[in-house]
Design a protein that fits this description.
This protein is mostly beta strands. The chain has one domain (25-196): Galactose-binding domain-like (Jelly Rolls). The protein has one helix spanning 2-21; strands at 35-37, 54-55, 60-62, 66-67, 74-78, 89-93, 104-109, 118-126, 128-138, 143-154, 160-167, 172-181, 186-196. A 6-stranded mixed beta sheet has the order 2-5-6-13-8-11, with no helix packed on it. Strands 4-7-12-9-10 form a 5-stranded antiparallel beta sheet, with no helix packed on it.
Length: 202
């Protein structure tokens, strides 16, 4: 009897460890409440890796997010009482890279994605245009940008939710969720969420 109880306790502990070790799906700072300060009010500092981006007067950029150095833009963390959730939302404008006319991209690590599984991506958007998706990296060291949902000429008067589904491909290594604003466009964005779609699709 003692052995049976010990075995049951051991199995329970192992199951608990497996559950604890299961990766949590999602992204950090999807509502943009967390921030760090850059060193210059006019331009983000190169020592932080954000040298080509223009920061707003409050010198704030969202923590955990990475501003793409080759797809720069203007970024403002807006606190005006009009966020979709919380206090803060982002305004992104893609008009910096005049030479190459690239859009403005920023991205954050997507946690817990697994090959073959499906995920739902949602965001609150207003006043503009943007693609939201992933920088998708594979084991063969290839990478591509995948659009999951789009904001197209969304009006400025109210927040709208956009959403899309993403299936993780074969030979998957990892991915970063990316906001991609086309050249000479802008957007206001808030409350980005990434969740797993159960196998039954509900």
């Amino acid at each position: 009897m003692k052995k049976s109880v010990y075995t049951m306790l051991l199995m329970g502990a192992l199951a608990g460890n497996l559950l604890a070790a299961a990766p949590q799906v999602g992204i950090d700072n999807g509502s943009f409440e967390g921030y760090i300060l850059v060193g210059n009010a006019a331009k983000a500092t190169k020592d932080l890796g954000f040298g080509n981006w223009s920061a707003a007067e409050n010198r704030r950029i969202p923590s955990k997010w990475i501003l793409n150095l080759t797809s720069p833009g203007k970024l403002q963390m807006v606190i005006d009482g009009k966020a979709a959730t919380g206090k803060t939302y982002l305004k992104i404008t893609a008009d910096v890279d005049v030479k190459h006319q690239r859009g403005a991209h920023l991205y954050v690590f997507a946690k817990g994605l697994a090959e073959g599984k499906k995920y739902r991506l949602t965001a609150q958007v207003r006043n503009g245009n943007a693609d939201i998706g992933f920088y998708e990296y594979k084991l063969d060291k290839t990478m591509k940008a995948v659009t999951v949902c789009k904001a197209v000429d969304v009006p400025a008067d109210k927040w709208q939710e956009i959403s899309g589904e993403y299936t993780v491909p074969a030979n998957f290594k990892n991915a970063y969720l990316a906001i991609m604003v086309p050249w000479q466009k802008s957007v206001e964005i808030d409350d980005i969420k990434l969740t797993e779609i159960p196998a039954d699709g509900k």
